[in-house]
Amino acid sequence: MRATARVLVYSDDANTREQVRLASGRRPAADLPPVEFLECATMDAVLKELDAGGIDACVLDGEAVPAGGMGVCRQIKDEIFRCPPVLLLIGRPQDAWLATWSRADRAVTLPVDPVDFPEALADVLRTRLSVSA
pLDDT-derived band of residue 1, with 50, 70 and 90 as boundaries? Predict the structure, then answer.
């Protein structure tokens, strides 16, 4: 098992980024390594970190401004070679079709649910870590 899993969290709202960290805890599931979070508040920072590599999963805020997580997701799926799996935070369940359009691997609603979120994060991490193992 790897020492840590690196998760990029994109939101212009520091409170949303904090909700993600707190809901995940140190490790979203017992079969996964501890998680190291890399927080980004702008799309430029997201692209820079993804270009640098080493990211195992992305959590993108669909409600972020000015660049929403759905558009960012679609762009990185097109532009980043071996793009990490994406967990998209959506404002309401009815937006799930937009998450599909953006090519997100999973979607959960805001506010971050401390039960649903770690399960969804663990699922996307497993897809990446099992491929790279």
Answer: low
Distance (Å, whole) CA 91 – CA 71: 14
Which helix (H) or strand (E) segment holds residue 96: the answer is: helix 96-101
> What distance in Å separates the CA atoms of residue 79 and residue 23, rounded to the nearest whole number?
29
Decide: helix, strand or coil at residue 80: coil
What is residue 2's predicted lDDT score, i.e. its pLDDT? 74
3 state DSSP class of 118: helix
Q: 10 Å Cβ neighbour count for 63?
A: 17
Do the beta carbons of residue 88 and residue 107 sit within 8 Å? Answer: yes
Q: Would you tell me how many other CB atoms lie within 10 Å of the CB of residue 54?
A: 11
In this prediction the pTM is 0.95
Decide: 55 and 8 in contact? Cβ < 8 Å.
Answer: yes
3-state secondary structure of 55: coil
Contact 90, 62 (CB under 8 A): yes
